[in-house]
Amino acid sequence: MTLDATTSAALTRRLAVEQSTHRLPSVAAAVVRQGEIVWSDAAGNLDGRASGEPATPDTQYRIGSISKTFVAVEVMRLRDEGRLAIGDTIGTHLPEVPFGHVTIAQLLTHTSGLQAENDGDWWERSPGSSWADLLASGAALRATPGTGFHYSNLGYAVLGELVARLRDRPWQDAVRDGILTPLGMHRTTTRPEAPAAPGLAVHPLADLLHVEPEHDAVAMSPAGQLWSTAEDLSTWAAFLAGRTQGVLAESTLREMLRPVAVADVPGAAWVGAHGLGWQMWNVEGRRYAGHGGSMPGFLAGLRVDLESGDGVVLMTNATSGLGTVTPDLLEIVREREPVAPTPWHADPSQADDLDLVGPWYWGTYAFTLALGADGGLRLGEPGQGRGARFRRDGAGWTGLEGYYRGEPLTVERDADGRPERLVLASFVFTRTPYDPAVETPGGIDAAGWH
Q1: Which residues are catalytic, by number?
Q2: Are residues 287 and 418 in the same domain?
Q3: Residue 251 sits in a domain of what CATH number?
Q4: Does the pLDDT of residue 85 top 90, yes or no?
Q5: Burial class (CB in 10 A: 0-12, 13-18, 19+), 151
Q6: Among 275, 286, 386, 406, which has the minimal tally of Cβ within 10 Å of its Cβ?
Q7: pTM of the full predicted structure?
Q8: What pairs with residue 411 in β-bridges?
Q9: Are 336 and 357 in the same domain?
Q10: Do residues 208 and 77 share a domain?
């Protein structure tokens, strides 16, 4: 699959403008559609000099906090294997931590209240230390767990140790064996492998460069150690769009992409949130997921449009200066070549449930029940009031969102097999308001409607 030549040219020009106007030594990017790279390019030279080696989509850059998404997926793989529950307290698995009552889910969503960074030297620019040394240096809660969003690099160091403990090998080996190798991401590593860009800082008031240090962060490495390429990271964008290739159950990926913690700033409308390891964005009602990354000398971004499945990855070797190019590249593709809608087709299997459709009443509230294209049910308008969608679950259905997410819906039929009651989270829906022929909790007034 390829993009139109004019679209590719627009993407290349936008990338070049970003490198030039924001004074980035080099930058590489790629766009993914339907699980494949449809455009990739790079601009600038690796050392920032006019005579330097040009960057390519196969140049390695440090991806910073995008590393956290790999740790999170490995945690969820352990969950799916029955090795842990995300509701477990971390002390269940790491009894030595002084915040043992914090849950794994809270660490994944940055709602643990754990401090943002480690105590001691600036870990991103200093040689790392062991897990034992990290704990000995002190680790404290800054807020009551579960009460709000507080980004914590230290929290992901804890999750990395959790993976290492349960896999009985370093977290990076577990991620390599369980995720990177099966996906074919052989250019994603914990230390740079040529060709790789050096980490650089650009002077804010002069056209001068400063080399940033590179090291192994050891215990803090799960928070931002990985290096990757635009081409390799595109596979991760395709994974996020649903092409999991058996590495993770699709239902688990959907679970990870539910917004849990709002990144709230008082006085400003919120547009960002965190799920189980992934960042989420809500831009004018359109949902995106991915993650950003920054380390001294590097910036990176990964973003996927959850409606279309289009994704973009971008990385640069600059400590600061990156503008809006990451979402801009995605917007160029969406505006110039929107994804075609899925064709409608009849579904004869829906005939089995046709007697359920139509009006239902919860007290005096009217709802219309319809059959969904995914084989489920739609009660009212999802997202409005208590409207929701339901997926088939055995003999009944389970709510997918909103007030009824996870709640069971069952159909009760009369002696002739006709549906007469819907029971949902203890609420009873009937074909007419307070139908006198059907049992309703609390009973029907003897006078009826009068």
Answers
A1: 65
A2: no
A3: 3.40.710.10
A4: yes
A5: middle
A6: 406
A7: 0.93
A8: 422
A9: no
A10: yes
